[in-house]
Amino acid sequence: MNPHLARLFAVSRQPARRIIGLMSGTSLDGLDVALCRCEGHGAALKVTLEQFASIPYTPEEQQQLRAISQPQVSLTALTLANAAVARRHAAAVQTCLWQWQLRPADIDLLASHGQTIWHAPRHQHQQAGYPHHATLQIGDGDHLAALTGIITVADFRQKHVAHGFEGAPLAGFADQLLFASPTENRLLLNLGGIANFTYLPAVSVPGPALTTDTGPANTLLDAATRRHFPGQLYDSGGRLAAIGTPHPALLAALLAHPFFNAPLPKTTGPELFSLAYVEAAQVQTQTTEISPTDLLATLVELSAAGVAQAVQKAVPDADLAQTVVYASGGGQHNDTLMTALQRQLPSVRLASIEALGISTDAKEAVLFAVLANETIAGTPTLSLGKICLP
Ligand SMILES: Nc1ncnc2c1ncn2[C@@H]1O[C@H](COP(=O)(O)OP(=O)(O)OP(=O)(O)O)[C@@H](O)[C@H]1O
Ligand SMILES: CC(=O)N[C@H]1[C@@H]2OC[C@@H](O2)[C@@H](O)[C@@H]1O[C@H](C)C(=O)O
């Protein structure tokens, strides 16, 4: 037998696996590296986060990733980036292993999300000749496996798309395994570039979880901050937005986009929620001259409204007051956004995912470790990702 297959077989039969989850999200701020110990699988799964690191991208790397996340990207640039991103991520894994004083042989699997370059659910691409969803993540898994010597599970979204779904959010699969409670209605809210949540009503036998994107969390805030406050990558603490005043007509025009009214579940990305969308609404409402802080204040309200509207659709009115919203992702550090969320969802209790024993910044990287664990050791209903041998 191919020794890599023998190793994979052995790993799948171990009572516990050490898996490094790798996630680089739509904010393009860097690579999150989560070393997880996954014991068991499915309903019996127990995950311990042993180590975590965020490896920030340099401003040049962020710029390069932004440049290739454009519809007019050259095929040469995209082809090179597919390998270059994998090399960058492999180097980050090697750095972490060195810092953690571990060898590649100590790790059973890498679980690599890659970098989303273009997300194209049908409602967003609207190409008459192709009535299906599509999504593209780069950072090739074979490169990662070959460069690190660790069996790698990568490219998790394609099977979801092949089965007719939008390729995202995948968080629901892991959220349900890790966080479902028989006694508490839980809503796991991730505030990254895009906001998404999983709703887990309190039931003794959990059914399939509702998981959906809600619209922008930070992606528009970051883009507007970079445009109007050169040198700042994001609005730290939401302090700039806090001194602005939301503009009601602009907010109404932004919220008139059909995405906000679409039924759940739904997904989106910075392809739709870009400054072009904001500028079109500003022209329409003659608000192109509002101050940058008023613009940020308006965009905070927009992100909060997207979340609030979707939560109100997902959670029956009678259950809202008994629902705890556990927030994760960088948007949790934006106090203005968190205040707007609580104002727009007055009856829910807002908490941090840390209350459930998981680091807020690590959550998405842990998710991919859990998905890889299920693919290798779990039941066939959840075998997302491609297995790449070193
Ligand atoms: N101190 C802070 N104050 C305000 N905002 C912050 C702070 N720290 C991080 N953020 C915001 O969080 C963003 C990064 O969040 P995160 O890493 O969760 O996103 P992501 O994983 O890239 O996105 P997605 O989940 O959509 O893929 C930053 O771009 C910034 O907007
Ligand atoms: C296509 C894509 O990369 N989508 C991401 C993005 O970032 C947040 C939101 O949009 C979510 O749908 C998804 O990521 C998380 C990890 C998910 O699949 O659950």
TrEMBL record:
Signal peptide: none annotated. ATP binds at G25, T26, S27, L28, D29, G30, L31, D32. It catalyses: 1,6-anhydro-N-acetyl-beta-muramate + ATP + H2O = N-acetyl-D-muramate 6-phosphate + ADP + H(+). Keywords: ATP-binding, Carbohydrate metabolism, Kinase, Nucleotide-binding, Transferase. Pathway: Amino-sugar metabolism; 1,6-anhydro-N-acetylmuramate degradation; Cell wall biogenesis; peptidoglycan recycling. It is an enzyme of class 2 (transferase). Its EC number is 2.7.1.170. One of its GO terms (molecular function) is kinase activity. Belongs to the anhydro-N-acetylmuramic acid kinase family. PANTHER family: ANHYDRO-N-ACETYLMURAMIC ACID KINASE (PTHR30605:SF0). Catalyzes the specific phosphorylation of 1,6-anhydro-N-acetylmuramic acid (anhMurNAc) with the simultaneous cleavage of the 1,6-anhydro ring, generating MurNAc-6-P. Is required for the utilization of anhMurNAc either imported from the medium or derived from its own cell wall murein, and thus plays a role in cell wall recycling. This is Anhydro-N-acetylmuramic acid kinase. It comes from Hymenobacter ruricola. The lineage of its organism: Bacteria, Pseudomonadati, Bacteroidota, Cytophagia, Cytophagales.
